Fold this sequence. Notes:
By secondary structure, the chain is of the alpha+beta class. The protein has helices spanning 2-5, 12-23, 29-44, 90-106, and strands at residues 48-57, 60-68, 71-77, 111-115. It has one domain. It has a 4-stranded mixed beta sheet, sandwiched between helices. The two termini are 29 Å apart.
Amino acid sequence: MIDRLGRDVPLDDIVGKLKGFYARGRISVSHALAELVVAHYLRSRGFENVDVEHGLAPRVVCDVYGELGGNSVCIEVEHGFVPPEHATEPISYLRARMVKKLAVISAHVDVPAIAVPPYYIPPVPLI
């Protein structure tokens, strides 16, 4: 993956942190790779203090955090997974999940955002 992203952006700290979370069963491979891609993007655009699984407050964790020009950004990675107990109302579940994520992180950063893979159309308006 690093070769595909390019070695011009240092990511060793991010990779190490994600490997640790994966080894402890706290993150899936697909989620870790998505966070790695987003972290690479932020660093390649000049963001500083880029971090993954970044604690914003007690029990509030940001998937990918960065700072640019005095503003902080938190990007939550969303794949559209619906647990079996919500299988009868997947759109309502996903909409509520995204709104909750944005509401919680917006209290702690200047710019809250959600990243989705190109195959997923989120059930909330894009702005």
